[in-house]
Design a protein that fits this description.
Layout lengths: L1 H25 L2 E4 L4 E4 L8 H24 L1
Antiparallel strand pairs: 1-2
Helix pairs in contact: 1-2
Length: 73
């Protein structure tokens, strides 16, 4: 059960990275600095925090699956 949950979390993490990259290219943000307008993606806004957390949770579940399986033997 933990293994499947971990794989799902890792897959969701990759999908979120894909959509963040896609939206960053299609709908870039315009940031006004003192002397110029700069167009940037979503990478500097903290939106990458959610897929990173989902990937870490997924890896934790996969490792937990193998630890509990080894402990049960």
């Amino acid at each position: 059960m933990y293994f499947i949950s971990g794989i799902i979390f890792i897959a969701i993490s990759f999908m979120m990275f894909f959509f963040i990259d896609l939206f960053s290219r299609v709908f870039p943000q315009e940031v006004m600095l003192l002397d110029e307008d700069v167009v940037q993606g979503y990478y500097q806004t903290g939106s990458l925090l959610f897929p990173i957390i989902a990937g870490i949770i997924g890896l934790f579940f996969v490792v937990l699956h193998y630890l509990l399986q080894r402990k049960a033997e």
